[in-house]
Amino acid sequence: MSAEPRINDRIRVPEVRLVGPSGEQVGIVPLAKALELAQEYDLDLVEVAANARPPVCKLMDYGKFKYESAMKAREARKNQAHTVIKEMKLRPKIDPHDYDTKKGHVVRFLKQGDKVKITIMFRGREQSRPELGYRLLQRLAEDVQDLGFIESNPKQDGRNMIMVLGPHKKKTEAMAEARQAQEARKADAKANPGKSQNAAEGDHVEDEAEVEVEAPAEASAEA
């Protein structure tokens, strides 16, 4: 059955409880009278409560109502936040430079409102020193405690030790802040086109530097 309400001539009852365009209660009137008022106001007669006795109908611009409802549903879907779990892999004897790089990724994920699964990979004789991985996970959790918390405590899983960090900030909040920051950048770019160009060139240089820094870190993690 169609979820669309009956409107105008599709309504087949002798009388209806009529609601006016502004939500005012008109009362129970014959269907013919309700249709006459709809034509007079240049609106549609829409059945909004078919199971009531008599059915409740309202005078409205049905085309406009459908459009606004579709826009609200679209905005609701846009604002829906799906939980994402990112993963970051570390070695128990990671060097300070690689640790800072990996921690930077964890910080970025938590700021985005995502959970982060931290995996410590043990190899060879490292498997006999699980305390090294535990201490590393605790250190990382303390370093990012302003942004996230330990959602799942460190636990051994075969050759690996795993911990899950959850963000303090909800995904919807992170998305809203990201949109606000983007709008602010656009407004600033429009107001200061020269400054925007210089900033873009600076960002380009920083991005290249970041790629050069990340590459050895990823290689180290997989080595």
UniProtKB/TrEMBL annotation:
Residues 171-223 are annotated as: Disordered. Residues 172-189 have a biased composition (Basic and acidic residues). Residues 7-76 form the Translation initiation factor 3 N-terminal domain. It is found in: Cytoplasm. Keywords: Cytoplasm, Initiation factor, Protein biosynthesis. The keyword Protein biosynthesis applies. Its main location: cytoplasm. One of its GO terms (molecular function) is translation initiation factor activity. The keyword Protein biosynthesis applies. Residues 204-215 have a biased composition (Acidic residues). Pfam families: IF3_C, IF3_N. Residues 84-167 form the Translation initiation factor 3 C-terminal domain. IF-3 binds to the 30S ribosomal subunit and shifts the equilibrium between 70S ribosomes and their 50S and 30S subunits in favor of the free subunits, thus enhancing the availability of 30S subunits on which protein synthesis initiation begins. Monomer. Belongs to the IF-3 family. This is Translation initiation factor IF-3. It comes from Streptomyces doebereineriae.
